[in-house]
């Protein structure tokens, strides 16, 4: 093992040298330090323009804010394909070193890195940067002891605990590639990911905690491994304190605490800039998991910059992203971005309501002096539904609340701005991008009171167009496919794991020269983007294309509606017409309410919507990251066989939805999907 002091000295020296080496002459001529210093600084319009006009100089400037073990030789490899740009080619770095070691070396070791707040267990724990570094070092040593080396894959199946972040950072410390799977995934889904990934080792926990039950992870893991064609060498199991212990399998299973106690730690291992940092599975249209591959260099460069430029957060601020670590928001904005930016990040193991009440978000903000927070519109709607009079106490540090993951309707935004007493700012991005594509960039002086329904303007680095199916630009205010001109900025995905052909066919084939987001939206005269729905959610009524979101927002304007979904259903005359399902705040006669809602949509959207099918349901399905799987409801309404998505939190709601669809004359010849899978 390389001597730690020698490595750090070498790394620090390399850091200094890298600034000297990277003052090289670009093809366009030797850049001016004064000009470069201004490229990423200023108002939004200036910075965004610089990011497109002086692409390489812009990202070279931002890349100087992290430590490079070996300087890159090219900011962007001119020979790399536009669909797979090689950013910071030849450079070597270590993400864990940049997230932890360098802050400790700079005298910030006593600063709190993570606040773990767990209302489901009644516990709280703070861990400093120095303490976190020590734990990560030791877990890195454990991984190496059991044969994990640079390039090996490690699957992490854990709840929202500090140890999950320790496991993630330990992997990046030794150049291993982690793949976090949402804790509590069913054995069949977990097995598919194990088979697809082929991990050298799995890190898991004894259990997770839901509001009403303990979810035992270990039996799910054992079953998943049993039915998977791939068998990991070892499983490291974290036994959660004061909860039932998991049954261990001899020779394969290792106890987290025992292994950590014996570990001597491990130094950070530099990796090439385009080495994968992690693989994260996202939804796909085929049965095989779709594994997003995130390159290390761009990821480490872009994320801390977005904390300042997009979210306007400074180094000493407390940041809270209310997301699970199993999703991309958790990767980017619970773990990596705040630590790379030397913030204190809140890790919240609870729900917006029910753990134990609807006051928890307000409590966490006030108790931990949260300056900025990130959540989903579904979380806000959940609080509103339970307590419409909810309001945060005066005197908190909160300045902005950012939301993403699904569309933010105006009713929820207006309510939340009163309840939280700060601007509620929507941003839009994808697992593939890893950071916002459009946003209201508070660090660049954008308007904190943006136009209704907008998700912001393109984040610097993104060149966005809206096209129709003939690859023609659509006019202002017209619905079109949102596409990003190539190359994508640093930090975006570089391929799909073991599926590069699928990567090209899925994202780059239909619109040549662009990345296809597969989302639909509009642009206004001021350049604001409104992301309205997935392209699949655009409803084509007799040739009139309309967004499901526009119809949902009209339904949400009704005072008795607390949640709504709209999808397209078959119609003999018009081909497709919209159908709405609504959740109400009080008992209503369905026939009477539907008449009101039909008029409401007609008044807000127009008769062209041909809205006439609607029913009341007790609840809508939400995935664990807050999204509503509209496609599953549309499939059921069409009378096609469907499987309830594994990410849905409460699958039982499909029984009530099935009955509601049948009252509207749909799903007549298909069984209740929930009862059918039991």
TrEMBL record:
Q: Name the top EC class.
A: ligase
Q: Which InterPro entries match?
A: ACAS_N, AMP-bd_C, AMP-bd_C_sf, AMP-binding_CS, AMP-dep_synth/lig_dom, ANL_N_sf
Catalytic activity reported: butanoate + ATP + CoA = butanoyl-CoA + AMP + diphosphate
Acetyl-coenzyme A synthetase N-terminal domain sequence ranges:
44-99
Q: Which domain of life is it from?
A: Eukaryota
Q: Name one GO molecular function term.
A: propionate-CoA ligase activity
Q: Per the database record, which ranges form the AMP-dependent synthetase/ligase domain?
A: 106-485
Which Pfam families does this entry report, sorted A to Z?
ACAS_N, AMP-binding, AMP-binding_C
Q: Which GO terms describe its cellular component?
A: mitochondrial matrix
Q: What is its EC number?
A: 6.2.1.1
AMP-binding enzyme C-terminal domain: residues covered? 551-627
Instruction: Give the similarity note.
Output: Belongs to the ATP-dependent AMP-binding enzyme family.
Instruction: State the name under which the record lists this protein.
Output: Acyl-CoA synthetase short-chain family member 3, mitochondrial
Species in which this protein is naturally found: Hyalella azteca (Amphipod)
Gene coding for it = LOC108673600
């Amino acid at each position: 093992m390389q001597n730690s002091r020698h490595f750090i000295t070498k790394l620090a020296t390399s850091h200094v040298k890298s600034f000297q080496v990277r003052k090289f002459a670009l093809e366009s001529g030797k850049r001016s330090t004064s000009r470069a210093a201004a490229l990423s600084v200023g108002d939004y319009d200036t910075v965004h323009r610089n990011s497109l006009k002086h692409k390489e100089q812009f990202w070279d400037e931002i890349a100087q804010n992290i430590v490079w073990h070996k300087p890159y030789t090219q900011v962007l490899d001119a020979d790399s394909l536009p669909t797979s740009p090689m950013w910071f080619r030849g450079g070597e770095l270590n993400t864990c070193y940049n997230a932890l070691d360098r802050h400790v070396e700079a005298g910030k070791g006593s600063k709190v890195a993570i606040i773990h707040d767990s209302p489901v267990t009644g516990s709280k724990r703070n861990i400093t940067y120095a303490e976190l570094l020590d734990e990560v070092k030791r877990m890195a040593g454990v991984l190496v002891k059991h044969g994990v080396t640079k390039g090996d894959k490690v699957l992490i199946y854990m709840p929202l605990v500090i140890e999950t972040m320790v496991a993630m950072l330990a992997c990046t410390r030794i150049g291993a590639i982690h793949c976090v799977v949402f804790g509590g995934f069913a054995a069949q889904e977990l097995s598919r990911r194990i088979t697809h990934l082929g991990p050298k080792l799995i890190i898991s926990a004894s259990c997770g905690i839901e509001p009403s039950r303990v979810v035992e992870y270990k039996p799910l893991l054992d079953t998943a491994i049993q039915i998977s064609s791939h068998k990991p060498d070892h499983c490291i199991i974290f036994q959660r304190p004061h909860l039932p212990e998991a049954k261990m399998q001899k020779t394969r299973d290792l106890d987290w605490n025992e292994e950590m106690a014996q570990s001597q730690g491990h130094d950070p291992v530099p990796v090439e800039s385009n080495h994968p940092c992690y693989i994260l599975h996202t939804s796909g249209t085929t049965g095989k998991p779709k594994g997003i591959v995130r390159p290390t260099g761009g990821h480490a460069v872009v994320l801390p910059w977005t904390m300042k430029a997009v979210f306007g957060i400074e180094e000493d601020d407390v940041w809270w992203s209310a997301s699970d670590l199993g999703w991309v928001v958790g990767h980017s904005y619970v773990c990596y971005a705040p630590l790379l930016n030397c913030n204190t990040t809140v890790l919240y193991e609870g729900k917006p309501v029910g753990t134990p009440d609807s006051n928890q978000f307000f409590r966490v903000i006030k108790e931990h002096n949260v300056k900025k927070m990130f959540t989903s519109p579904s979380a806000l709607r959940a609080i509103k539904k339970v307590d419409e009079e909810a309001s945060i106490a005066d005197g908190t540090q909160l300045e902005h609340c950012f939301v993403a993951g699904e569309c933010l309707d105006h009713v929820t935004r207006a309510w939340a701005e009163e309840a939280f007493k700060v601007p509620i700012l929507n941003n839009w991005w994808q697992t593939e991008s890893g950071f916002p594509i459009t946003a209201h960039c508070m660090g660049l002086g954008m308007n904190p009171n943006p136009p209704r329904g907008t998700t912001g303007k393109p984040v610097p680095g993104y060149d966005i167009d809206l096209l129709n199916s003939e690859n023609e630009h659509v006019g202002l205010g017209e619905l079109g496919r949102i596409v990003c001109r190539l190359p994508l900025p640093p930090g975006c995905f570089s391929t799909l794991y073991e599926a590069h052909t699928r990567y090209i066919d899925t994202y780059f084939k239909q619109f040549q020269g662009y990345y296809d987001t597969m989302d639909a939206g509009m642009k206004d005269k001021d350049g604001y983007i409104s992301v309205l729905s997935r392209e699949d959610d655009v409803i084509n009524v007799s040739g009139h294309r309309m967004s499901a979101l526009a119809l949902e927002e009209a339904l949400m304007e009704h005072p008795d509606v607390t949640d709504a979904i709209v999808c397209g259903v078959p119609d003999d005359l018009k081909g497709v017409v919209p159908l709405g399902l609504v959740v109400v705040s009080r008992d209503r006669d369905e026939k009477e309410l539907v008449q009101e809602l039909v008029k409401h949509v007609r008044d807000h959207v127009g008769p062209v919507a041909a809205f006439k099918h609607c029913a009341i349901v007790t609840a809508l399905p939400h995935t664990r990251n807050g999204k509503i799987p509209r496609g599953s409801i549309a499939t059921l309404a069409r009378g096609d066989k469907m499987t309830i998505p594994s990410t849905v939190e409460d699958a039982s709601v499909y029984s009530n939805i099935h009955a509601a669809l049948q009252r509207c004359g749909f799903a007549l010849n298909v069984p209740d999907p929930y009862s059918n899978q039991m």
